[in-house]
Amino acid sequence: MKLLTCPMNGPRNIDEFQSFGPVRARPDPNATADGDWSRHLFRAENRKGIVVEWWRHVPSNYFFLAERDLVSNEIIRTFDASELRDHP
Amino acid sequence: MAAGTATRIHPFMPGGAADGTRLVSGAVVLSDLTGKPRFGLKGGGSADWLAAQGIPLPAVNRIGEHRAMRVLRLGNEDILLLAEDAAETLADVKAIWQAAPAPKGYSSWREEGWAWMRLSGPRLAEAMCSLCALDLRSQKFGADYIAQTRVGHIEAVTFRSPAGFDILFDITASAYFARAVAAVAGHTA
Asked: Which residues of A touch B155 (CB under 8 A)?
């Protein structure tokens, strides 16, 4: 069983979680060139390295963030979203 | 019953969706508390409103007590009051909440959306062991702890009650859950 540590509920079977994809920049639609805007809407990044992703613990409906290594698939750490808000 | 209020039919009642599904008894006992009073608040303002009523709020995933009601903190702004033996106290809180101005959170309709069942009996520990992957032994999982996890393969909230374990889950899975428990009880008997 693969485990993921939820910041609110503790270590759980990764089956209990749902992934919501990487945290993305939120460009201002009024101040972004068309080319950049379409890239933002239609293209997904596909790089190596560490990504910060949104995850949800389904039974408690709790959304949080996880840092994951895209090559080894290792989850480096999980943390509450307020941490990103307070220290962007 | 207040005038104009329809009688609720719970799943295991005659005419309910799980009518005819057996609730195990014997070494493992499953009882249905779905008809018992409870009230949940969720969303911004819930915690502040309850605290302003003098209801002490425990930490997230812990259980507190207030006037014979159990206070379950399922999230910062997700709180559930269980009033198995305190129907009048709960009705008072509910009436005050309904009349109160916002912000006061939103009703999470736990009395309609969730089933409330209790597992007990001499083979309780073995049964919970097969139903839930968490370590629920008393030295690891105290009387005031809440686990939001899977029980019997469905998303559920579970915690200790004096008689055993209480389990809250989506009411539409009632028959499924009763069958899952019956299957486990068959193996642990």
From this structure: 16, 58-59
